[in-house]
Amino acid sequence: MKRRTLPTAVALTAATALLLTACGSGGDGSKANDKIAGADTGSATTASPSASASSTAARPKIELPADLSYTFDWSKTGNAAKDAVLADSEQSIKAVDLAIANQNPLDKTYLFYYEGEAAAQIQRYVQAYVKADARTTGHYRYYAPVVNISASDQASLVYCEDQSKAYDLYLKTKKVNKTAVTKNSYVLYSTQLHKNGNGVWAVQKLMSVRGSSKCQP
Q1: Regarding predicted confidence, which is higher, 185 or 22?
Q2: Is 26 left (phi over 0), alpha (psi -120 to 50) or beta?
Q3: Angle, alpha carbons 135-167-201 (nearest 5°)
């Protein structure tokens, strides 16, 4: 979902996924219909026992490069279903960066958390990083979550991402591309999830608005 300064041509092939040119392209709403390819994380974690108590599946362990880190500024709501959505969403974000770090567009960890249209978007997104021989680095912050449970197995999550300290790292040269912070460093995401047979809140649809006024500091 990211990022920074990968070439625009690469970004466009990635997606209709979130542009890889995170801060550098498009005005407010210009990417309103971009479908994002995922999201991010750094330390190895699993969903908290309290949040995933109703789940039957063991979450895959996510271990990412030490130069990647994340802050999730969303507290538990006290509602078991909403907290489970937030817990699985944290892991789904991190799983995308794991696929990028592994340079594997079919990485099993993100496929644990994404299905259908969203999984196809992420595959294309990760493939763009593989083609560019690059991965993500830096720090991501997620905030202002709004969770809605529409049925026992259907939910939506809207949240903001701060990419101001996140960058692209080119693997061959080890060069980190840093860009100036602009309004486009802040991205609004909207996801649709369903609780699958394993008790996992899996992302089925994912969209983004780069430079959204709702996410500006």
Answers
A1: 185
A2: left
A3: 65
Enumerate residues 6+ apart whose C-beta is below 8 A from 121.
15, 16, 17, 35, 36, 37, 38, 206
pTM: 0.77
Pairwise CA distance, residues 156 & 49, whole Å:
21
| CA pair distance 41, 169, nearest whole angstrom | 15
52-102 pLDDT, tens per residue? 334 457 899 999 999 999 999 999 999 999 999 999 999 999 999 999 999
Task: Choose among 37, 39, 197, 61: nearest CA to 119.
Answer: 37
| C-alpha Rg value of the chain to the nearest Å | 16
- CB burial string 53-66: b at 16+ within 10 A, e below: eebeeebbebebee
Residue 78 corresponds to which tokens in the numbers above?
Answer: 């006290």
